[in-house]
């Protein structure tokens, strides 16, 4: 049994043998380039006085920057959709090369590597700046790496001269280092890695790869020294701390394999207790103590591990290892208890696997995970990180560790999102279609009425009236004819005073009318003075009213134009729109069918791979169960032979 | 077992992964990947044409009004949310994530609103909520009167810093 357990622990050693060079394309980096381009193209503010061309350019710039908003927030699909829409409507800034560079960046981000490759290749045939030439080779290298064609990647990388923007240089050295590692040119690899300027950005990862490769290619001591340095890096950054853990874990298992348990313990104890590699470290630590015959010490990590999530293979192994340590300590009763509990746990795990296999075979298991994880958080790395928190997602963590499975799952998620998008468009198009029909109906009914109303208003006559009045006002204002702007009450008062004047004049001569005249003159003078004092204010108000009337007339003209446009639109454009919509609906139907087919293929693939993996794990549990039962039988045999009660 | 490490590395954006063995599963995955890339391209073109049709139908230039938001430095104000009212009616509101703020700080522009307004005079009120100087809660409204004619209206709201006053400034520019 000891041998079997030891074999399982050796699994970790594969960690050291299969690391090689292949870089994930990291399009985020390209956003830096956009910033660079952006600052060069649009860094200058517009002058206070802007021409129409400048305004149009600024509108294009605004649209361009909305694409950046979606790109920077990892909403690649919307960024691409906006780019293609603005491009088709000629609403993007005019620099073709810069725009194509941006498009390739979005293509890379959205996983359309073939499209990106086509543009890069076409860019290279044109007269582009040297830094862009180098940059296209840089990204072509990464695309070839993604395809797994290391030779093509090395050729592309060799084309890079000295014009690569500084922000990309460290990664360039990293890629050179890795490709040289792959070709077993370890000295050249080390030289490239030394040129990386930021000590914590690319270099540690390159050093790690170099260390692993040296160990695997007969330069063990050099490799161990490099990994030991990586394991001692001074940083709190999560990715670096994880790399330190991995380096220490790798060294721990290397020494475990070489039967140097003390050194194995030294390195394994450096791995964080709750990091992503802690389970493997705890398992290895137990075996290292066990190899030293210190089973009481071995129990500490194994008991801790046995309390963890039993879907993890290391935890499953610990359920066997911990009672084994008890038995080695002659604590047969505890060993027996633990083995019994392990049987229960293994049976529970089997049930879980049965349940999982059943769910997977029903077809909607993976779509449920996608729905739980939501579509809109489109950055794959963040999305995968959050899957474990979903109800169904926690069961497929081990499946997502496989690169192929991960890629297919990511594509499956994108396809579901595209299908969901088309479903939304389909609903919207129905609404638009109904709107157009309703509009056509309304036009037919109300347009003639509205036109008649407008015609009744006789815009020309109104305009003539307005002009006459304006001219009169001009004269009144020029001549200071304040009586002309008197209000109705004042005009009545003036009239009454005139009547009084007439009455006084008609009085018989025997009356002395002089006092009456004086009083009348005073009243007339006061009234006229009052009217005159308000003249300027009244002229101002009337002129303001004239401006409003002018605006009203202008609005009337625009409304007439709109109605004329609407009449034309009604007859032709609605027909065109309906035709366009019909064509769109046909295209949507076609895409819908293709998406459905491809989604089904992805589901079939995911189901197939998941089923194989789950069955293998089930088989492993069956083996563990057999080992547990054999161990229990051994304990019972021992107790029978010795006469001790277990 | 090595492949188990990959996911963790991927999550951490550590750029190296294991080259998988060229087995049946991986070739099937590659074949699916090629089909997905082709179909994605087609669906993107379809979406482009649908977006154009939608804009022509629903937002004709004679009535179209767009509102954009940009940040210029933004040292004295940390934007948390924004509300847009046109003619006293709330037409858009947005609460910002850290990632969106970073995008704006890098020069991206957000289109906050796209809608239709008839020709004539309209009033836009933008309310900015966030943290002002010395991390104090800060709310500012800015008003803009616009006259819609037959061309589309682009309104750009910009949050900028006035170094002299050590205060943020909220500008509205019509294009």
Q: In words, what does this structure look like?
A:
The complex is a heterodimer of chains A (646) and B (175). Chain A is built from 27 helices and no strands. In chain A, α14 runs parallel beside α16 (278-291) and α17 (295-306) packs antiparallel against α18. Chain A has helices at 2-9, 14-17, 28-42, 52-72, 76-88, 96-109, 113-124, 130-147, 150-158, 166-182, 186-194, 203-216, 220-231, 238-257, 261-268, 278-291, 295-306, 313-328, 332-361, 365-373, 380-387, 397-400, 403-456, 459-479, 488-505, 514-533, 535-642. Chain A is mostly helical. Chain B has 175 residues and is an alpha+beta fold. Chain B contains 3 helices and 8 strands, in the order ααβββαβββββ. In chain B, the strands form 2 sheets. In chain B, strands 4-1-7-8 form a 4-stranded mixed β-sheet, with no helix packed on it. In chain B, strands 3-2-5-6 form a 4-stranded antiparallel β-sheet, with no helix packed on it. In chain B, a hairpin with a 2-residue loop joins β2 and β3. In chain B, 28% of the residues are buried.
SSE diagram, text form:
The complex is a heterodimer of chains A (646) and B (175).
Chain A: H1 2-9, H2 14-17, H3 28-42, H4 52-72, H5 76-88, H6 96-109, H7 113-124, H8 130-147, H9 150-158, H10 166-182, H11 186-194, H12 203-216, H13 220-231, H14 238-257, H15 261-268, H16 278-291, H17 295-306, H18 313-328, H19 332-361, H20 365-373, H21 380-387, H22 397-400, H23 403-456, H24 459-479, H25 488-505, H26 514-533, H27 535-642
Helix pairs in contact in A: 3-4, 3-6, 4-5, 5-6, 6-7, 7-8, 8-9, 9-10, 10-11, 10-12, 11-12, 12-13, 13-14, 14-15, 14-16, 15-16, 16-17, 16-18, 17-18, 18-19, 18-27, 19-27, 23-27, 24-27, 25-26
Chain B: H1 2-11, H2 24-58, E1 64-71, E2 78-86, E3 89-95, H3 98-105, E4 110-116, E5 120-131, E6 137-148, E7 153-162, E8 167-174
Parallel strand pairs in B: 1-7
Antiparallel strand pairs in B: 1-4, 2-3, 2-5, 5-6, 7-8
